[in-house]
Design a protein that fits this description.
By secondary structure, this protein is an alpha/beta fold. The chain has a single domain, classed as Alpha-Beta Barrel (TIM Barrel). The chain has eight helices and nine strands. Strands 1, 2, 3, 4, 5, 6, 7, 8 and 9 form a nine-stranded parallel beta sheet that branches.
Amino acid sequence: MTRAEEIAAHLSEVRAQIAAAAARSGRPADSVRLVAVSKRMPAEDVRAAMDAGQLDFGENYAQELRDKRAVLQAAAAPGAVLPRWHYIGPLQRNKVKFLAGQVALIQSVADTDMLEEIDRRAEAAGAEQDCLVQVNIAGEAQKSGAPVSAVPALLDAFARARRVWCRGLMLIPPLAEGTGVEQTRRHFAALRALRDREAAIARPRVELRELSMGMSGDFAEAIAEGATLVRVGTAIFGARVTG
């Protein structure tokens, strides 16, 4: 089996698992969008996944995303469909220039300073930029994300923005301990409850329709709790290249 065939087979399996999880929750399969996390994987792997019908890809490093995007754009035929890029890693002010107005969704906005920088860069590019607020739902000191208590003020900041939109919330839950991934469901449920509370408040430029939660080991549980975006890397591409 070639590398491309392997990726296509893994994608098919993941899609089947997503459809089954959605069905168990009484939801249509197309209510959940798969984001293939391609960080540390070569552009050729992204191309193979695209050939198998995948369009949404997630990257954690702004410069890697920039370079991979350039390679794929340069190789694309005129009029060809290009990847929809999602930035899912921690944000740095000096890297926003590689993202604002250039990716479909920035999933990891966690403070007003970064929001303002994205807004400024998007305005300079003459673009609108969709974002998610990353929430540190468990209050982990070592993890990125806005504290739950800071989310209302951050959404208020989106309402005052010129070029950015908040389309929903994202989280990376604590690693499962003890009984396994079922423990993460309470964090997924907490994010859904937070989304529902804040969605009841009308704000310009805030439409909380997306819940980005669930990765290779727990996306079925995330779907059961309402995920609309699941971020799957290892189950599609295998172990990542390091170093």
